[in-house]
């Protein structure tokens, strides 16, 4: 159990998820010396019976290179959790640990779906109260060729259909202009290919200022761009939401009328924009693998980690990996014929 | 006079700039048939004497490739405006036209400062009521090698010192993690070099979620990342500010108390965040050239275009190009010695 806060966040989150989903069973993979004292606080809850601790020796730290992490991964919580899937003891893995290591180990242990060059990290960005855009890649592949972007488009379409229930989702490529001549070579290459895949409803380029305008159901980019785009948005939203908060001391100094205004303002703002707070849509699918793996923010709090567990449940229920495999086979067979 | 709205925006903006700066003289370069009818509305103003129309035949359209634009640029408003600088008739050029063409023609006609591989687009992002971060590149160079990022860091430092008056500005590289091992090869290379330049106060990597935290005075990135980072921020801010607005009809339906709350809320929000609205900091310096060139947003409105003109005035007053040349020579001589 990695991430910035380890079991102090993930254990309470696991218990909350068990309470929300009565048929859910969870395996907590990590160091018992850290997990057990936190778990002991919840001993009296009956749902603790649906929770099993799988003991491991160590955790992969967040700042080592993926290649090195994989070499020293034996008996780490991340590797053991993934091995529980490959041995049939678990259906999905949720981790707040080192993204590169999770990607590398997932590929090694769970394998990619045939035809997928590299799995991608993806999230469901809420652009309105009901609408969501599937964005990928968010940082698993910081350098992508055009073929990879095309594969991301196919996987994103399946996610949009299966998880969000969108029929014939609109797919776009993130670029720095809307004209065909704009952008990097890999993007222009992917655009050309996507125009010729009838099973994908490709609508062209979208610029980053239209991210929250709901213009596409799937937005495809390389992992570097996806990461900085999403982090920029999160940063702006966090700053704006935090501006609304006052410390207790500051609040006590206000007059009653100002307190009322503050209260209404906060309520209005929270209703309008809290959906854009990273906590509410935490949980990035590592799509393109033969099983479900969800990456949580390293700095996720309890609420955010529960949201990541929910995404894992949803992906298992919708059988996302199988659906991607089938779609890919259909697209490739049409392409070859 | 290009841009999305052409002289309908730029002519009134020019007149406002003349009113704000009593010693300013402006040359309006463009098609007289379009400019003159708009200008005729202001005939009675005395400041119109400080304005000269330089007639040209055509405008470079915003969606043609830079290479082609340059080949057909003879007697276009953009080319003529830049030639007015090289012939000594103007000190700076402000354009809302095709960014790639402006970059290409500026390099061709005005030339880069010795030692600068490629000029960069940069803006001053207001992260607080008084603090600003110089960000570059914003899209002039969508592919950058490590050396170019180092040059951007040097130019950004000079801009921060000269335009913002910051002593020994903190310089950071935009990346997807804070550890040295993270990110693309060019970023890691630039980081290594910057650590060894004593004249630059290099502080390491900054992630996009810290963009508005004021952690650095200069933020360096390739043009693709810079463009999508800034556009993401603009998109989020625009959406939030637009949510605060109601149509006249919607407003009239509200009760007096709700109207009052609305009024206070808008006032509060405007005071807090209007500085982040693109109109207030429009105007990207094309730094690294031997003269001052300012690129305005294509979709800039009057207020935003005035802001771009102000930046040109400021750059001329601070003699930015000369200062960059001197700094670069100092850094290179220290490096060689």
From TrEMBL, chains A, B:
What pathway is it annotated to? Lipid metabolism; phospholipid metabolism
For this protein, the record's InterPro entries field holds: FA_synthesis, Phospholipid_synth_PlsX-like
Which EC number(s) does the record attach to this protein? Answer: 2.3.1.274
Keyword Transferase assigned to the entry: answer is yes
Q: Which domain of life is it from?
A: Bacteria
Q: Name one GO molecular function term.
A: phosphate:acyl-[acyl carrier protein] acyltransferase activity
Annotated localization: Cytoplasm
Q: What does this protein do?
A: Catalyzes the reversible formation of acyl-phosphate (acyl-PO(4)) from acyl-[acyl-carrier-protein] (acyl-ACP). This enzyme utilizes acyl-ACP as fatty acyl donor, but not acyl-CoA.
Oligomeric state and interaction partners are given as: Homodimer. Probably interacts with PlsY.
Q: Which PANTHER family match?
A: FATTY ACID/PHOSPHOLIPID SYNTHESIS PROTEIN PLSX (PTHR30100), PHOSPHATE ACYLTRANSFERASE (PTHR30100:SF1)
Q: Which family does it belong to?
A: Belongs to the PlsX family.
This chain belongs to the protein called: Phosphate acyltransferase
The organism named in the record is Candidatus Blochmannia ocreatus (nom. nud.)
